[in-house]
Design a protein that fits this description.
The chain is α+β, with helices and mostly antiparallel strands. Among the domains are: 119 residues, Sandwich (Jelly Rolls); 59 residues; 63 residues; 98 residues, PH-domain like (Roll). It is built from 14 helices and 23 strands. Strand 14 and strand 15 form a beta hairpin. Helix 1 packs across helix 2, helix 5 packs antiparallel against helix 6 and helix 8 packs parallel to helix 14. The chain is globular, with a radius of gyration of 32 Å.
């Protein structure tokens, strides 16, 4: 518990909202805070309550809950909450409850109004945090861990959205003009203009909606544990790059001339395991500064957790029964995960066949999965598809009376057989295309080549054994549709991911997972070293106690004989 005012000022310098201020500014702001104490289960403020203050946790834990009492954030030392009170007068849209004996710093709105004009950067940071928390209520982030919560959540700059919808909007307008001219001047007696107008407007609307959904699906997120960049192309592509806060080495800003004029830039997060580029962000400078603040705060938390973990291990080594080792917690977590995994049902054939119907990249159970480009599928099904369409045209001709030479019963029997064979042919080729997958797990790369109703060929290699990764685009079609081959050298073996969409991104994914794997191995070595040092300390402690007991037993009492 912090007691001296200087310690409070030092504590505020690690809070992201105030981390950029110098000591004199922190001293001024620190004098406006009041200390409060809450017992376990005590409500700090209620849902729909008056927004009168912001709180920072000095010690203890606080839960933030929705109106239906569903917890969405478990906060701990250094975290702030209730910050929307400083900028808005709206009633609270969540409530805060203390989970243990908790000490807070409280800044009242009336006190903040005395200084906010002198610190516009603080207000900018508060605005980003408030918008992030509001957006996190509307976005499904089911992959977050139970003890993980969002600090920053934002999308690309709105100018990027306008750029995405500009081309389909212009083309749709041009098509509408052409259709009206076709209907009113060139072919006024025919319905072709109206048909083209309807098809063009419908296609244009779908195109614009798809672009809007595409923009809305890209997110940048900072949690209390990691930095995440989510990029999705609706129904086609899904990517999630992330890095733990503890692995960050530096944070940079990069912007183009257009970005400088409009007000967006890229935030580049360099980590031990790779680089994450957060593209076209609004308030990029503020976000970069917040990332650095949360990164430094994470370092302090890691040091504190490291000390606690060392105490737990030593407590167990020295025979304290109430201490639980990290290995025990890991084993319990694994048991829970195994139980959860056993409850999952195997999907049926149709669900399996048509799940992730046309996606070329997706993630499943922590693994990144790629399929070959659609170009490969089209190349194998164009002939049966052409035969199917010709047969369909023949069927229409028979129904219209244009082909009366062949008996209709015989003709339809032949067409049914042709349709059935084409369907089987196309289904087989689709299943064959779908079965060929390339997978990157947390510890290996896997190439699976499986023939429908036939043999399975599976090749794999550990990530830490990869020597080099190269990629190339294949010919004219490869450049046109952006697919190619990624080659991975593992010793004397060479694995290839053939015809994958955006091969440069696949290469980046492999590099990133390699970095994660090497970092996890390094962390394992650190844990082993911690275990070894704690064993040495425990052995020394037991030896010291034995020596002390021996010395006491050999020392005569006061009334003994010298």
């Amino acid at each position: 518990m912090l007691k001296k005012f200087g310690e409070i000022v030092e504590f505020l310098s690690q809070v992201p909202f105030f981390a950029h201020l110098d000591e004199s500014d922190l001293d001024r702001i620190g004098r406006l805070f009041h200390r409060e104490y809450f017992r376990p289960g005590e409500e700090i403020f209620s849902y729909q309550g008056s927004p009168d203050a912001v709180y920072i946790i000095l010690s203890g834990k606080v839960d933030l809950l929705h109106a239906e009492d569903r917890c969405f954030a478990h906060l701990s030392q250094g975290d702030a909450f209730g910050e929307e009170a400083l900028l808005f007068d709206d009633p609270r849209y969540y409530r805060a409850v203390s989970q243990e004996n908790t000490h807070l710093l409280r800044l009242d709105v009336t006190d903040y109004e005395l200084i906010y004009e002198d610190y516009p950067e603080v207000e900018d940071r508060l605005d980003v945090a408030i918008r992030s928390r509001s957006l996190s209520f509307r976005v499904n982030l089911s992959w977050l861990q139970d003890n993980e919560y969002v600090h920053v959540l934002t999308r690309r700059h709105p100018a990027v959205l306008w750029g995405k919808v500009l081309v389909p909007s212009i083309l749709t307008i041009l098509l509408v003009v052409f259709s009206l001219l076709l209907q009113t001047r060139w072919l006024p007696g025919r319905p072709y203009g109206w048909i083209l107008l309807a098809v063009g407007v419908f296609t244009g609307i779908l195109w614009v909606l798809w672009r809007v959904i595409d923009w809305r699906n890209d997110f940048f997120i900072v949690t209390n544990k990691r930095v995440v960049w989510i990029e999705k192309v609706a129904l086609i592509y899904e990517s999630r790059q992330e890095a733990p806060l503890r692995t960050i080495m530096s944070v940079d800003l990069q912007h183009t001339r257009l970005g400088g004029l409009i007000g967006f830039a890229d935030v580049v997060v360099n980590t031990y395991v790779g680089t994450i580029r957060l593209r076209d962000l609004e308030d990029a400078e503020i976000i970069a500064s917040l990332i650095e603040s949360y990164w430094h705060a994470s370092k302090s938390n890691n040091q504190r957790e490291e000390s606690q973990l060392m105490e737990q291990i030593l407590g167990e080594k020295l025979g304290s029964p109430w201490q639980t080792s990290a290995d025990t917690r890991v084993r319990r977590a694994q048991q829970v995960n195994q139980k959860a995994a056993t409850k999952q049902k195997e999907p049926g054939f149709l669900v399996w066949l048509f799940s992730d119907f046309i996606r070329l990249r997706y993630e499943e159970d922590g693994a990144i999965i790629y399929r070959k480009h659609w170009f490969v599928l089209v190349r194998h099904i164009w002939l049966p598809l052409l035969i199917f369409l010709l047969g369909l045209g023949a069927a229409v001709g028979f129904l219209g009376g244009a082909l009366e030479i062949v008996p209709i019963n015989f003709a339809f029997a032949i067409l049914v057989v042709i349709f059935f064979l084409c369907f089987i042919w196309i289904t087989y080729q689709y299943a064959d295309w779908r079965n060929d997958i390339y997978k990157i797990t947390h510890d290996q790369i896997i190439d699976v080549d499986r023939k429908p109703l036939g043999k399975i060929r599976r090749r794999s290699a550990p990530l830490e054994n990869i020597l080099s990764i190269e990629y190339e685009r294949l010919g004219f079609w490869g450049f046109l549709f952006n697919f190619g081959t990624v080659s991975i050298s593992v010793g004397n073996v060479r694995l290839t991911f053939d015809y994958v969409y955006q091969p440069s991104d696949v290469q980046q994914d492999i590099f990133y997972r390699m970095g994660e794997r090497l970092e996890s191995l390094r962390q394992f070595e650190i844990d082993s070293e911690r275990e070894r040092i704690s064993e040495w300390i425990a052995t020394y402690h037991r030896g010291s106690n034995q020596s002390e007991d021996t010395r006491k037993s050999d020392t005569p009492g006061k009334n003994g004989i010298a």
